[in-house]
Amino acid sequence: MATVDPVPVRKREAPAEGRDVYDITLIGAGPVGLFGAFYAGLREMHTKIIEALPEPGGQLAVLYPEKYIYDVAGFPRILAKDLVRQLVEQTMAFNPTMCYGERVLDLKREENGILRLTTETATHWSRTVVICAGVGAFAPNKMDNPTITRFEGKGVYYFVKDKRPFRQKRILVVGGGDSAVDWALGLKDWASEVTLIHRRDGFRAHEASVTELMRSPVHVKLFYELKELHGNHAVQEAVIYDNKTMEEMRLPVDAVLLSLGFRADLGPITEWGLHIDKRSIVVNGRYETNIPGVYAAGDIAAPADSVALSLIATGFGEVTVAVNCAKNYIDPKSRIFPGHSSEKRL
Ligand SMILES: Cc1cc2nc3c(=O)[nH]c(=O)nc-3n(C[C@H](O)[C@H](O)[C@H](O)COP(=O)(O)OP(=O)(O)OC[C@H]3O[C@@H](n4cnc5c(N)ncnc54)[C@H](O)[C@@H]3O)c2cc1C
Prior knowledge:
The protein is α/β, with parallel strands linked by helices and 346 residues long. Helices cover 21% and strands 29% of the residues.
């Protein structure tokens, strides 16, 4: 296991050469990363979260936003998306820097002990890092069809980060899961027209949402699939087809929202020199990895000689230990025990 090799930096450094060195950076804004950022704020650490997706919540937001969770302490039952909302509210009490839509591709420890994280678009520096990457970075499933992918950024979307580009637009939503149905409903009063196509007649979405969809003004076309898109500088027309009769139909559209699910991939994390065992990062009792200053918690962490449960409740405990040990790592005079939050004023 890692030997503690503290970086003797107590004060926050002023940004030098454009570098703003954070005390702690959490990779992943799933429930564990969000709660970790809250604890880091409580410990007055200069905190950043980097998340591959454009939104927080990890598996809860991507895989089961409309499901109830029954085993989070203090909540007899809570919808996954509501737990994410509450976690974000709790975390934002300390205003951490949130970097969404950035996947961490590389992590290196520089000679002075500072950790350098590289994403597709930026470089970040931090004294400590807690990897809360769950089952890996989520990326949207795409269609292997160049007539469709060539319109990415020109009318083809995989997420709705902001409703404004859809105002008074003719929208085609493709998919039959929670996201597809929720967005068709969410955009129906905003867009001029919404059509949803789904290749089957069974939806994976929440029953109540499907009932609402069927009663709504959204044009629902079952057993239809997207064949290709046409347009000049932006998408103008979709060709869809009935997968039973193969009959084609042309739809004038301004935006296409492909809601085809997500895949998760540990990807680059396996190449950072971490001790990995069966898709998990091995940690010691302080949730330290084999790289000094780098911790892991939540679904991705496997404590050596202990039991790893992939649950939100255990992830919260793990990240609490990791963050408080990280505090002590950058400031060995500070206590690991954070004190009681009830004695603080937030
Ligand atoms: C259908 C289903 C139902 C469940 N029900 C329950 C339940 O009832 N109770 C319960 O306790 N647990 C439940 N779980 C498990 C629970 O969701 C997980 O234990 C929990 O989400 C783990 O949280 P996490 O923050 O560790 O990881 P995640 O939720 O997986 O979040 C990790 C985040 O890290 C991001 N990320 C990964 N790699 C990178 C990178 N390189 N750069 C930037 N970002 C990155 C990902 O995009 C993701 O947003 C359920 C899981 C599923 C699939």
